[in-house]
Amino acid sequence: MPRYMQAEPLGEGLRIAIAVARFNQAVTDRLLSGALDALRERGVADDAVDVVLVPGAFELPMAAQRLAMSGRYDALIALGAVVRGETPHFDFVATAATIGLGAVARRFDLPITFGVLTTDTIEQAFARAGGSVGNKGYEAAMTALEMVQVLRIVQRY
Question: pTM of the full predicted structure?
Fold first, then answer.
């Protein structure tokens, strides 16, 4: 019989860092609000959360790396909004953020969740930042908490 390991997104006693891109700030402010709501709901103390603002999504991996290097956090949450425009800039920024954040997570063996919206329109971004499609910041925070607990369970076996 296989052994299943699943965890609840519990936050009591955890330290969390959130790196937030200021570009498309009307969207990222909503993502941040959703993430903070999720952390509070799951027992993370306000003074156990550090929020770092960076210029844009491209800068998220560098901020995540420095936060991870500090050794102070149980998980990191990266929030941003990259909206497709008329040039290939979208592809470069979205790819750099995705690959960079994944590399930092693996290098430091630390849960880093990807709350970076990559949408075709600003309307789609707002829909995913507390609109009709929910709040991806909230979801990223819940995922971060769950991953901390999953890794703890796996480490015990």
Answer: 0.95
